[in-house]
Specification:
This protein is an alpha/beta fold. The protein has three domains: about 100 residues, no CATH class; about 200 residues, OB fold (Dihydrolipoamide Acetyltransferase, E2P) (Beta Barrel); about 170 residues, Vaccinia Virus protein VP39 (Rossmann fold, 3-Layer(aba) Sandwich), CATH 3.40.50.150. It contains twelve helices and 23 strands. The strands form six sheets. The protein has a seven-stranded mixed sheet with strand order 10-9-8-11-12-13-14. The chain has a seven-stranded mixed sheet with strand order 19-18-17-20-21-23-22, with helices on both faces. Strands 1-3-2 form a three-stranded mixed sheet. The radius of gyration is 31 Å and the shape is globular.
Length: about 550
């Protein structure tokens, strides 16, 4: 008996015939097979109306007109016995029976699934957003892992499923993400470890006072960023960068982030496919959708959604906005930010509001502030109130002082301090922040504050050379800390008190060493837990002149 095997060639149109181990093998082109398949299907449709109905449904599925689609552009056969093929659940082909060869074949094109039982993940049947509540912590788990493959380096997605590396506690991806280093450490133990670290770094400059703790240390981040990419099937994926890399860790919900922000990001991810919007691929530079940034006004409830695209044109923009607002009517404004550069920066230079005013408001310590997409604004509003209140308290203002607010951003500290001072001067280099700071001052009807767009170091030298004096200097530098140039300029200005607000005890220790060698001492060192479940914390320090330096 002669066994004939039909092997479809993807390329080429010439049919040939070979003999392998006594079997006659016919090699024919894909087009040749399709022509024969179509003839058989036409014949079946004429003979059997039921078969015609099945064929019509599959055409609709292939055209994307049904939500529960299975096929990926592959025609379905009514009777596959003629071609020795049948469809699997994903609409791809696999062999019906390889027993004639004595070979146990692995089906081609079947989806390799990850065993997520260790995560406690419950997947829904449609591959859309599905979450499992962790009753112990009241949080939701990542379900995008249902789509992940073992290796997808082409898209920059970190998809290696190493069960031993996964934290099975509050967050299933904490070991991959690296954003919450102490997620499974009890809160009191976190505070203890942080305090020991502060004492180790800062104890030689003064007594480190007890931490200002957070009463409810979860979901505190009101600024939430998600990077968007896709898996090998083209399905949208959103999450965060793995620490120190640009590999994307898929995340549905984060224990640190505002829950409403996470829900909006999940909705947007689900909308992309229906709107046929392609996510950006960092490797080849193609795709439109790069990031989503959500900013939430903690006290006002206002929400800003920033869509970071490679082009200012969002397909079906009006329908997209309408669909998003239908799911989340609490959104105040939606902004398109254009970032078409190959850069690690999230936001680009150009932006345009497509819904609402393009900004939101929030209140801190009784003052109202405008927040734009690029504005610096503390991510933990609850602890921000405690931090700034303590900073103004340490300044010891009596209503007669001239206060200089360096690195002033949108003017938060200076505006909060203004009712307690004679004059407040804010200095900021970022022009967008300067514009917002001036607006914030007018909005709060503050008349004793002036905001300058200038480099703070240069400005203090200019003040000193002009014979002007500042009684109190607030300095709130970036995580890297201050510079010797800035501090030397501050020494020339010779303020009576310095209130240093730091977001890194390491850089603070370095700067305190320099400041205390130049006529100042640390009177109060107070740590504030601004970032629960992480190693980071804020510290506010009051520095006053030593007895020999007063003049």
């Amino acid at each position: 008996m002669t066994l004939q095997i039909i092997i479809t060639l993807r390329y080429g149109s010439t049919a040939c015939r070979e003999v392998y181990n006594g079997f006659a093998i016919s090699l024919v082109s894909e087009d040749f097979c399709k022509q024969n398949d179509y003839k058989k299907e036409d014949k079946m449709k004429k003979e059997n109306p039921v078969n015609r109905k099945k064929y019509t449904n599959n055409e609709e599925i292939n055209n994307g007109e049904k939500t529960g689609k299975r096929a990926q552009g592959v025609r379905s056969k009514s009777d596959d016995s003629t071609s020795k093929f049948r469809k699997n659940a994903q609409g791809t082909k696999r062999r019906t029976d390889d027993s004639a060869f004595g070979i146990g074949k692995k089906s081609q094109g079947t989806k390799r699934r990850t065993n997520d039982s260790a995560f406690g993940i419950e997947k829904n049947t449609r591959g859309t957003k599905g979450r499992t509540d962790d009753s112990s912590f009241g949080i939701r788990k990542n379900t995008q892992g249902a789509k992940r493959k073992s290796n997808d380096s082409a898209t920059g997605i970190n998809k290696k499923n190493n069960m031993s590396s996964v934290n099975a506690g509050k967050c299933p991806v904490s070991k991959k993400c690296g954003g919450c280093q102490m997620i499974d450490v009890p809160y009191k133990e976190q505070i203890k470890r942080k305090h020991e670290r502060e004492e180790e770094l800062l104890g030689k400059y003064g007594t480190v006072e007890p931490f200002i703790e957070m009463e409810h240390p979860d979901h505190y981040r009101c600024k939430v960023h998600a990077v968007f990419t896709h898996d090998r099937k083209g399905n949208p994926v959103s999450g965060i960068y793995k620490e120190g890399t640009h590999d994307v860790v898929p995340v549905d919900a984060c224990y640190l982030e505002n829950e409403k922000a996470d829900a909006i990001i999940a909705t947007i991810r689900g909308m992309l496919k229906s709107f046929k919007i392609k996510t950006f691929d960092e490797d080849n530079g193609y795709g439109l959708f790069r990031h989503v940034l959500i900013r939430v006004g903690h006290n006002t409830g206002e929400i800003m959604v920033v869509l970071v695209l490679t082009s200012p044109i969002l397909p079906s923009k009006n329908n997209f906005v309408k669909a998003l607002l239908k799911e989340h009517p609490e959104i105040t404004t939606i902004v398109i930010n254009v970032n078409d550069k190959r850069t690690s920066m999230i936001l680009g230079d150009k932006e345009k509001a497509i819904y609402g005013p393009g900004f939101i408001y929030d209140t801190v310590c009784g003052m109202k502030f405008k927040i734009s997409p690029k504005s610096f604004y503390q991510v933990n509003p609850v602890q921000t109130e405690k931090l700034y209140s303590k900073a103004v308290e340490l300044a010891g203002l009596t209503g007669k002082e001239t206060v200089l607010d360096c690195y002033c951003g949108v003017g938060t500290i200076g505006i909060i301090a203004s009712p307690h001072a004679a004059e407040v001067i804010g200095v900021e280099l970022n022009k967008d922040a300067v514009r917002d700071a001036r607006l914030n001052a007018r909005m709060n009807e503050i008349e004793n504050i002036t905001i300058y767009e200038n480099d703070a170091s240069r400005f203090m030298v200019q003040m000193a050379e002009a014979g002007d004096h500042a009684d109190v200097v607030f300095m709130d530098p970036p995580r890297s800390g201050s510079t010797e140039i800035f501090m030397d300029s501050m020494f020339k200005l010779n303020p009576d008190r310095i209130v240093y607000i730091s977001c890194s005890p390491d850089s603070l220790a370095r700067d305190l060493e320099y400041i205390t060698k130049n006529g100042y001492k640390a009177d109060r060192i107070i740590p504030v837990d601004m970032f629960p479940f992480t190693r980071s914390c804020e510290t506010v320090v009051l520095l006053t002149k030593t007895s020999g330096s007063e003049g």
